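FORM 7B - TANDEM STRUCTURE REPORT

SECTION 1: FIRST PROTEIN
SEQUENCE AND TOKENS:
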Amino acid sequence: MANPDPLRDASSEDARQAMLAFAPRILAREWVPLGGACGRVLATALVAGGDQPPFDAASMDGFAFAACGREQRLTLVGESRAGRPFERAVARGEAVYISTGAVIPRGADTVLPHEVAVIEGETLIGDSPTGAHVRRAGYDFARGAVLLSASHRLRPFDLALAAAVGADRLSVLAKPRVALIACGDELARPGAPLASGQIHESISASLAALVSHWGGRVTLSVLLPDARDALAHAIAEARRDADLAVVIGGASVGAHDYARDALGRDARLIVEKIAMRPGRPTWFGVGASAPVLGLPGNPVSALVAGMLFLRPLLGAMLGLPPSLHYRSAKLSEPLAANGDREHFMRARYVGEVVAALSDQDSSLLTALRDSDCLIRRAARAVAAQSGAEVEILLLEASC
């Protein structure tokens, strides 16, 4: 059966779904210390090995005793401190001073807060409803509870939960290995002197930071001239050694744009180009080894396309749910009707109001710097007035 033709001028959503269907799942696992686990994806569920708290505990500083439903005169016989429990049972008519988090002694069932207690010498006068200010064993979670499921991406708060069950390391999925291959005769590495007609290559550093932020790791980053054989060799090596190869540049229709042709005989194009701006030359190919995502050489186009396609691909490789979350915002200024391609407009979002930047030229890195979101304008969208609702996608705010 012949391979189907690649998608040409597909919508961004159709192109994304076509790519995600070929995202390889990461199966390799590794153990990492708790302090280095933030942002990683759990390979196995975190299950409570015991109750939390493991004993009935006081929720306030005060006095522990057995409630009887009326005011009592109780003899103070000792203290239950956090980490140093009162060793014997508390008899009727007795009370012990107790600190927050300390074990409720045997025979006691209630805590009277310190600030409302009446003390006369060694006698406590008062009462409290049965069970007041006591955290029962298992109040937070019980033995056997699934606290975090497999395929959960760990947040800082989750590490406290893992530590609470006694875990000092966690089993997580290996980070997807990403190879970055930038190409272009006009490009020089940052720090290198510029020859006539050259500019510094500005995409790889930003893309590598985003890959790390999205849960992957860059294992190769090379800069090549516009040479078909060199590019084909680099792509073949990257596909063999990485989980995903990303080719930056060489994707347009110029005489020296070789990226698609260098994909390899064992591979085929799934997406040839996308009906969007910026980023129309974005492409995607698959074969027997790692898939290849091709990004435009224009820096803004490449980074916008990275948000729309590379981020979901890395998420799918780690078994995470779709990572593009559009939200609604109201325009502070009108927008003209859109053309035949989806337009992802650089914009500023303040409160619930969004404003597109005045200059949407895709060469402007300063415009990307000044943006915190993208307005998604559908193909052939009609003009929108101030106050109209539009879809926006928040940009990454930090490394």
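SECTION 2: SECOND PROTEIN
SEQUENCE AND TOKENS:
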Amino acid sequence: MYRRRLSPPQQSFFLLGPRGTGKSTWLRTNFPDAHVIDLLSEEHYQRLLAQPGRFADELRAVEPGRWVVVDEVQRLPALLNEVHRFGEERKLRFALCGSSARKLKHAGVNLLAGRALPRAMHPFVPEEIGERFDLEPTLRYGLLPIVMDAPKPDETLAAYARLYLKEEIQAEAAVRNLPGFARFLPIAALYHGQAVNISNIAREAGVARTTVAGYLDILEETLLCFRVPGFEAKLRVRERKLPKWYWCDPGIVRAMRGSRGAIVPEERGALFEGLVAQLLRAYRDYAGLCDSIAYWSAETRRTEVDFILTTGNEHVAIEVKSGANVTDKWFAGLRAVGSLAGLRRRIVVYPAGPTLRTEDGIDVMSFAALAQALAGGGL
């Protein structure tokens, strides 16, 4: 059993995260005496779908002040009305777990009016698995608990991709044109780590531009993907405002592309950059690493900084390189952004090697060193 970085809140909360990240296991471990309502159980789901009043009947039998776990709450978001009521009247505390924010976003999550804290469960971070972490297998198979424990990770990832289409998309009727969405997925996976170009994706997938925009929203709302916006500041150069697109796990990226076997050089850079993006995002959610994450791009100089972490008025700039040998070209973007007000630190992250510092104060660290720094309290 791995100890997760996420700490259980003391009040009601939503716990959202992609399928296979270990949400249910974490809930069982941290709330062993909770009353559990599992909507993943088809029998329980169908009973409450037909008779939603049975949910209130079940809650009346729970002792005041006790924890109640509602797993896959997005399947019946109307239940949040009763969650609100019983939280007020009987002081029940709720752990509301789900693998999709789509239905919650469109149907009722605001009913709790801030009474339930938002929490996220991510794929593993290196500190959670300790000595078992290995960068190369991670880039190939990812860090989903359901995949790491599988005897055949490639087959498990392929099944994960099929299950996503069946349970998250088809079952929820999220799209009208399922074949079009299936064509779209591997193309969207090719844009991992790139600025989103909706017109190009639409042309390659053979669907309308507006349809692609909706498909991208679905990937975000089902928690498989996230966007990193362009950084906005009054620098002397023109900044790109298009967001960059990342999948939450390198194994999922490869599964959606249909890639199996060893990593080829053409995909290594994006996979490594995406892994760093996900690591930063996880520590933002788990430990308050920063307020926001953005990227900076100066088209006039053809330079870019992969990530700008902002906390208040201070910034940390991080550039990700997948090569093995440090060269002066690696520092171009970090030097271009050097005039940014409040810039506290500049870092280059690469797969493996010694920790270095340039004469003008840019730190160079391995992925392992970055992960260790984040586990120890941040940057």
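SECTION 3: OBSERVATIONS ON SECOND PROTEIN
The radius of gyration is 22 Å.
The longest helix spans residues 265-287.

SECTION 4: SIGNATURE
Preparer initials: ____
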